């Protein structure tokens, strides 16, 4: 297994390539990848907020536009 020190010595490009390889590997078996319980808890809270009319879901395009407005 590769260690944290080896990762730190990689260039940014090499780290991105490693992340892409890991992502592809995990995507081949999505049924074996479990989200942590706290993910479900947060999603449940957000869905309840939307259902109560105190929140809204955004498309990715809407989110990007909102975030772009925040940049100094």
Description:
There is one protein chain. The chain has 2 domains: 1-33, no CATH class; 36-72, no CATH class. Helix content is 67%, strand content 0%. It has 4 helices and no strands. It has helices at residues 4-9, 12-27, 37-51, 60-70.
β-strand amount: under 5%
The domain count comes to 2
Low-confidence stretches: none
On the 0-100 scale, what is the average pLDDT? 93
The Rg value, from CA coordinates, equals 18 Å
Q: Considering DSSP H and I runs of 4 or more, what fraction of the residues is helical?
A: 55-70%
H and E order: HHHH
In DSSP terms (H or I, runs of 4 or more residues), the helix count works out at 4
The gross shape turns out to be: extended
Q: Quaternary status of these chains?
A: single chain
Structural class: mainly alpha
Features of the shown structure:
72 residues, 4 helices, mainly alpha
Summarize the structure.
The protein is built from 4 helices and no strands.
Annotate the secondary structure layout.
Elements: H1 4-9, H2 12-27, H3 37-51, H4 60-70
